[in-house]
Design goal:
440 residues, alpha/beta, Rossmann fold, 2-enoyl-CoA Hydratase, Chain A, domain 1, 2 domains, five-stranded parallel sheet, 19 helices
């Protein structure tokens, strides 16, 4: 069923409008029960885009990389069908954040075309990786002043933040975000304007947004449907984007490529609308805390930097002194893009906060990732003692000495019998990384 309501202009980032009020301005097909047929999804996309003034305009389609489960060929195919022959230019931009670029073969599989034959499937469309490592790919949108950052972060940080964004977004008339909405350790629930910041953003706003999230802590912020301080900062950055900003936000069925829902509107209202569905479908509540977790990491996560989501989504449900085993025999390294994490290792938030002069030169996004995987804990600056609430153990191809040096546990993945673990009382989570577990 399609729920249709008027779609006025986006509310400003500092609006008093609640997420529930914003959600009512979007249009949604589907909901928390059941899944949608592919032809329903395609028809919805074509109908919604037919109602937008896009003729003769250029459109940048911003999509996730391969670390998000999503029927992207279906979605991009429907978008292309709706825009082809109408728009002056069409570019699909992969929101890598700071992940590894996707190869042509990976892009072809991801978007649904034969490698080297993009034009045959999507005539007139260009596909670009977000080259976050290349300064010339960015446009300068201005600066969020320290006083405003202090307001947005609720007093946690006060500094000027340069706002750089991939120039492909800026050089198109319309930016159309297409992708899933999921519980997220930094922002609360992902999607919407997050595809711009950090999806295709410069390092400064990535570092600041992630460190604000780390100061709040992953366990506190993850799964929050409200406008968190990080979401407020992201929306503030997005308000500087000159393009018209629209989004097709989807909520998928866990463990499959089927969709529960798809929401369309501006990037704020469509996100809020989809976040309501996500909170109902992607959060599992447990009656008692679990003590031993086998978190089975799917192969779409190629390193611990991305596979750590298998911890983030479990931490709130783990007992004090419990253990989360990141079971990923396919993973061979901690990070393909951020070797500095091997130098600092994994520690709780206070380990860095109470030794700030020692660590402030490290990218704050890296520090944030460190705290997110290590979870809650305390650090005594006088004694140098760090106490961590939960043990984190890697069952990967990463050597034991590398794991220990990074302040993580190690176990040979060949020694783990998943079936026996489940029979012995361990909490086994297949396809970990997208469903959040909480205690009632």
């Amino acid at each position: 069923m399609t729920t249709t309501v008027p779609r006025p202009s986006p509310a400003p980032a500092d609006s008093d409008e609640t997420p529930a009020e914003a959600a009512r301005r979007a249009v949604r097909l589907g909901g928390t029960d059941g899944v949608l047929a592919p032809d329903e999804v395609a028809r919805f996309i074509e109908d919604q885009l037919a109602g937008v003034d896009l003729d003769g305009r250029s459109v940048c389609i911003v999509v996730p990389d391969g670390t998000r489960t999503c029927p992207l060929p279906l979605l991009v195919g429907a978008v292309h069908a709706a825009l082809s022959g109408r728009v002056s230019r069409m570019t699909t931009l992969i929101a890598l954040g700071t992940h590894q670029p996707m190869s042509e073969a990976a892009l072809a599989s991801h978007l649904g075309y034969e490698a080297g034959r993009l034009e045959e499937t999507y005539p007139g469309m260009t596909v670009l990786n977000h080259e976050w490592w290349e300064p010339t790919t960015f446009a300068d949108l201005g600066t969020i002043p320290a006083s405003r950052l202090s307001e947005l972060s609720e007093g946690r940080l006060a500094m000027d933040v340069p706002v750089l964004l991939n120039r492909a977004v800026v050089e198109h008339d319309v930016a159309l975000v297409v992708g899933p909405v999921l519980p997220h350790e930094v922002v609360g629930i992902s999607g919407g304007n997050k595809y711009f910041f950090p999806g295709v953003a410069g390092q400064d706003i990535i570092d600041v947004s992630h460190w604000i999230g780390a100061l709040i802590t992953s366990a506190e912020i993850i799964g929050t449907t409200e406008i968190t301080p990080v979401r407020a900062l992201i929306n503030e950055g997005a308000s500087l984007v000159p393009a018209e900003k629209l989004a097709l936000c989807v909520v998928g069925e866990s463990g499959s490529l089927d969709l529960h829902s798809i929401s369309f509107g501006d990037t704020i209202s469509s996100w809020a609308n989809a976040a309501e569905v996500c909170a109902a479908t992607h959060v599992t509540y447990l009656d008692e805390p679990v003590h031993r977790v086998i978190s089975i990491i799917p192969e779409m996560y190629e390193d611990i930097w991305t596979g750590a989501k298998g911890f983030y989504k479990l931490e709130p449900a783990v007992a004090d002194g419990g253990e989360v085993i990141i079971y990923a025999p396919h993973i061979t390294e901690i990070s393909t893009s951020h070797p500095e994490i091997n130098e600092i290792g994994y520690h709780c938030r206070d380990y860095f906060v109470k030794q700030w002069d020692r660590f402030k030169h490290i990218h704050w996004g890296t520090l944030a990732h460190s705290t997110h995987l290590r979870g809650a804990g305390t650090y005594d600056a006088e004694t140098g003692e760090e106490r961590l609430r939960v043990r984190v153990t890697l069952a990967t191809q990463i050597p034991e000495d590398v794991c220990r040096a990074a302040n993580l546990g190690y176990v040979d993945p060949a020694s783990i019998d998943v079936v026996a673990e489940a029979e012995g009382g361990a909490f086994v989570v297949p396809n970990a990384g997208e469903v959040l577990f909480r205690l009632r």
